[in-house]
Amino acid sequence: MVGVILRIAGLVVCVAAWWWLGARGQEKGIPGGMLMIVAAHGVLIVAAIFLAKPIAGFFGDWMSGIFMPGGRHDRPQPAYSIPEGRVAREDYAGALEAYAELAAEHPEEIAPHLRMMEIWLRVYKDPASARVIRDNALLSIKGRKNRAKFESAARVVLAEGGVET
Predict the structure, then answer these.
(1) How many Å apart are CA 148 and CA 64, to the nearest integer?
(2) CATH architecture of residue range(s) 81-160
(3) What would the pLDDT profile of 88-125 be if each residue is shown by its tens digit?
(4) Is the pTM of this model over 0.70?
């Protein structure tokens, strides 16, 4: 905070010096005032040095946000290939188990819960178990936005399965 205050104070001093030197240089005319006008431009360079670090920091943070992933990618991502492979082999019990593990490891993910609901509805034709998965997911999914997304997606899955919500 002290650094910011010092930068602002330095910029104010630079602006005041630039204005004063420029005005005095124009009053004196070409021979004597030229040195003051050149000094005024030197003060602008000093002001640019005061501004360089905050501007470079702003653009650096902006560019790193574009090219480098955020906190969501700081840890391993969910591996959906294991349960999807089990579904492809028609090992639905194993797929349900793998999706449950994914849901426990990644509480911000909604896809494992939806896939478990789909398996219960389409393969086992058990809407009661799909509703239990939905209810448990609403308790375990982290984040209000994720829960809202899950609720709307779960309504669609249950409606496609012919279940009234």
Answers:
(1) 30
(2) Alpha Horseshoe (1.25)
(3) 999 999 999 999 999 998 888 899 999 999 999 999 99
(4) no
The three-class DSSP label of residue 88 is helix
Residue 155 DSSP SS3? helix
- Distances 137 to 52, 77, 89, 101 between C-alpha atoms, Å: 49, 19, 26, 13
> 119: which 2 tokens?
């398996």
Q: What are phi and psi of 10, to 5 degrees?
A: -60, -40
d(C-alpha 39, C-alpha 20), whole Å = 10
Question: Is residue 78 within 8 Å of residue 109, measured between CB atoms?
Answer: yes
In the chain, domain spans: 2-71, 81-160
Q: Which two tokens stand for residue 31?
A: 């021979």
Q: With bands split at pLDDT 50, 70 and 90, how would you rate the model's confidence at 72?
A: low
How many other C-beta atoms can be found within 10 angstroms of the C-beta atom of residue 34? Answer: 12
